[in-house]
């Protein structure tokens, strides 16, 4: 029998496995932003979450549930043991010791991150569309209420005056008019009933859709921790590769980024020393808002950019042209340095950050920003591209 400590070291990716009772373990699982504690039983040389215990070791159990959902054990735990955390290696997620191995792991985590991102985007689109439909239905119900009120008033008025007219026409022996008044009143009541029934159906649809939307919101919230964790792991691998001097083209290949110009700008030449990026006045615009920044960049080529003070206290913002649109991203200022996100807040100055991302695509921070900081807003643009 292996001890709890041995299991932690042998299976660094299975989280914490403290031994609660002799022979038993507890698996700590992160799901939906919360920690779930699951007891692993050990009896007669077998392990498992419940009877019958079928695994020969905790290692076998963990390996099995890396590929199979825990829903087999608990329907509320539709999740796999995908992302290991070790108390011995939390500060250093990169375990491989050669560039090719790290690149393959980067590729693996990036694919997982993209899949989760696509799922989140799909849910977000569904949530947004459903929220709009819910609001439209609420507005329609309000309109139904007003219409019902009008019809009820008409029915009351019709009923009040109909009695007098029917009595009068009865004395006159005018059955035709009596029939007409009665039919009009019945039609009015029938129409009121139809409107009321439509409102009830709409209210039921709204109730069902609101419940579905809450479920979608829960799914989105449950994905957020996974996205954050995958982003963190992926970024650790990117930092490791950058520190090893791996060319951006190679990193882009692992990330599946296709760019015909990926070979440009990755080697320091004499021309680089004359880059306008070295002059902060060519790209730093001070206290300028988003709209003013967009006005400055409109009509300029992809990669045209500026750096400005952010509305977020203590931060800066980068505005850059990407595929004909101006995108904005926050630059954080931390004791370690400037950067777009941890662990990339490494640059001692804004100029160092700008010079780095002149050569390196912003796509590693945001999949929609496959662009480099190529052209400072106040520098001369390439001929014919203004």
UniProtKB/TrEMBL annotation:
GO BP terms, alphabetized: insulin receptor signaling pathway; phosphatidylinositol phosphate biosynthetic process
Pfam family of the protein (one): SH2
Superkingdom: Eukaryota
GO MF, one example: 1-phosphatidylinositol-3-kinase regulator activity
Keyword set, alphabetical order: Coiled coil, Phosphoprotein, Repeat, SH2 domain
Any one of the GO CC terms: phosphatidylinositol 3-kinase complex
Family of this protein: Belongs to the PI3K p85 subunit family.
Name recorded for this polypeptide: SH2 domain-containing protein
Native source organism of the sequence: Champsocephalus esox
